[in-house]
Design a protein that fits this description.
Layout: E1 3-8, H1 17-27, H2 44-53, E2 76-79, E3 83-88, H3 93-106, E4 110-112, E5 121-122
Antiparallel strand pairs: 1-3, 1-4, 2-3, 4-5
Length: 140
């Protein structure tokens, strides 16, 4: 079992959660006619995201694969034309989430928290959901 997150090409994905989840289910059938280990098949924005992300979480497979099989940061990145699905070791989850999300924002790609129930779907240019901070003296 892994800790899974995904970035996506925002122009390819539906904006409503219901339609997005149908689209997501199609993406993870991995039915595109190419190797899912080479970032060259992805959109330009996803390629840029990937090149920076692997500085922190190197790929397990493909042309840029890490030789260090014992490094817990080595990640299984499955690369489609419009998505990059990253399966992390649970031991790096607390570092992987903010790194992946922040780089998604930086490179103007979408972000989806696959491992969470009702996980966050973030599109570029849309303000991230902010947590409501309760005043210490309110008890609701």
């Amino acid at each position: 079992m892994s800790y899974d997150l995904m970035v996506f090409e925002p122009s390819a994905a539906p904006k409503s959660r219901k339609e997005f989840m149908v689209w997501y289910a199609q993406q993870i059938k991995w039915s595109e006619d190419h190797n899912y280990q080479d970032h060259a098949v992805a959109s330009a924005a996803l390629q840029n995201w990937f090149k920076e992300m692997i500085e922190y979480f190197p790929p397990m497979n493909g042309p840029l694969a890490s030789d260090d099989v014992d490094d817990p940061k080595v990640t299984d990145h499955c690369i489609g034309k419009n998505v990059i699905y990253s399966a992390f070791a649970w031991s790096v989850a607390e570092d992987a989430y903010p790194a992946m999300r922040e780089l998604a924002i930086k490179h103007s790609v979408g972000f989806f928290d696959v491992s969470a129930d009702n996980g966050e779907i973030l599109f570029p240019g849309v303000a991230p959901n902010e947590k409501i901070q309760k005043t210490w003296w309110k008890f609701w």
